[in-house]
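#onboarding

Welcome to the new folks! Below is a worked example of what a typical request in this channel looks like: someone posts a single protein sequence, and someone else replies with the predicted structure as tokens. Don't worry about understanding the tokens yet, we'll cover that in week two.

Example request:
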Amino acid sequence: MRKSFILLILLVQALGVMAQQADYSKMSSMVRQAVLENRTMMRRMPSAGQREMCAFVRVTSHADSLFSRHGCRSLARFGNIHIASIPLRSLAALSLSPEVLRIEARQGNSLHMDTTVVLLGGTKVHAGERLPQAFTGRGVVVGIEDIGFDLTHPNFYNTDLTEYRIKRFWDFLSTDTVGSSLYVGAEYTTEEALKAYAHSRDGLIISHGTHTLGSAAGSGYNSPYRGMAPASDICLVSNAVSEDVALIDSADLYKFTYATDALGFKYIFDYAASVGKPCVISFSEGSSMDFRGDDQLYYEVLDSLVGPGRIFVSSAGNAGQQVNHVRKPVGLESARVSVVTSASAAFFSIRAKSDDYRLRLIFEGPEKGHTEYILEPSAIYQRPDSLLTDTLEAGGKPYYISATRYPSCFNASDDVVEVVLKTDKRLGADYYVGVDLIGSDTEIEMFRGSGYLGAENKSLASNAYSIHSPSSAPAAICVGATGYRTQFVNYLGDPHVYDMGEHGERSAYSSVGPTYDERVKPDVMAPGTNVISSYSSYYLEACPEASDIASDVEHFEFNGRTYAWNANSGTSMSSPVVAGIIALWLEAKPTLSRDDVMEVIRETSHHYDSSLDYPNNLYGYGEIDAYRGLLYILGLSKVEEISDSQPRAVTFSLSNEGLLRLFFPHEGVEPFSVRVFSTSGTQLMSAKVQPFGGSASLDLSHLPHGIYAIQVSASDPSLTGSTLIRR
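Example response:
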């Protein structure tokens, strides 16, 4: 069960004991939970007070003496916000200090693989967007924070295996911590150390990071499954998410929070700065937004981390096929919503402009036992700290209700009630659980936190407000998923169909906006359905019968080990594609900021549905186009003689001596013209070319070294277009 499910229940149980011993108003939900939980544990086991939490802390002044008094350590500073290690026993006292304005921590990241079906589909296709010849990400650091890395996969060498491109790796869960200066885990900084470590500690139970890294920066190693920035340097952080809980000592759980994740982002950006290179980070994890403001400091830190040459990209989430929002309008007396989950608890939030409404909770138990519970928002404010808890039975089955009320962190005039429903087994799976939103004079909105909602009046329900955090942060470039391939054949020859759209349509699972504060998200789209990338040899060895191994499309040998290319789907897959493309853009202009990147996206993205206004909460500004973006950055997009797309049926190769060769899919190609332009748009050459034997050549040896646009014009449309080359 996720901690957030039981947060309110724990708070209420300990409230009377903890009164006046902490300033809860300064704490995010998980920090309050930790204070209460730790006090209870210390009564039973005094040594529990040695536990620590990694949290964001906003202070009014210099914090050294403050932190020292409370046994805290500042791990990083961003203006008046610190990422700090705080003993749990000190949290309450720290909150009472007038110099402390807020203490914030949160957990709950999950991976953004599509889990709407068992099969996680397959083929890596970038919608005909072929990597431009001139740009491969050289001189740029691609950072991936994820879990499940195979550091030995040949995809992370250069194309001829002469250079190992992973330069730094921090594993939060590494037990090799002797001499480590890092807050948790250890780092590996040499090729020898990286190869000896071989895989992240969780690399035997998951391969997610191996896949996302391949999409962003894989060389393709003897395959067509090349990443978007195959010559970039790589810096990795293996963090900790819900899938890793079994590997973490329970005493250390609070060390792994969003604040620790932010330390990972800083680690990657700091490495890039140390070698003087621009950097883009891809993050394919997240959890639901909230109205409590539990991510306020997190978002401010993200804003401090990004800047010119420092870009943060994050996946939107995979909640687009679920009911995430139900709206009962003014004039309608009531609307009924069912609640169900495979876990024992679920929670949701209610937003309204006033408290002139009621919630009727309906529970059924064995043999049709039926119980109703009326929840009045005004009654919650009458409880200590606006927290209400109750227990009831329906047909002998126990149900636990916990509710809190507060003003929205985005708009104080919006009243929010957050409700946790819990039972002893699966909630709503065996017996019905429902919620009636009642009040004809008030608009009432219901937002899914966890579990699944079902509205009886389907016209009131939508998949909106499903963007995950931190993609909902203003500093993040939020990426949704599109579909092209609908099926693939695995390594055993078995065909698999997973149809989530064609021709760049939004894949149904891809989360949609707006954010809880009504900003448009996602920002951009990229192929995320049926993407083939690298998979871990260690995962394959340890879990040969795992269901996702059936989505491997190829197994191959390298250095005595068996590796895989695997088909996968989700916005987890689309985020690294965008990050890799931005690496190409940073190679062209290393000082690009987030605003600059968003301008390129706005001006050059494809619009699948021309009937929509862009940006919108389905597609953002549209689907990213690597090549058109490069033309825009280089100032070539307004040169009328240069096509804004590459020829679909021509590949290019440039020798060190300056001989450009063009290859065609068949012989018998008619003569065509080739023109060469400088990046200023000046035409430097024009020639009529006669293909022979499926190829043609053009001598560019007399041109000085630099970047050039090659325009091919032929009677066959598939042979017409431009490409960029570096002489």
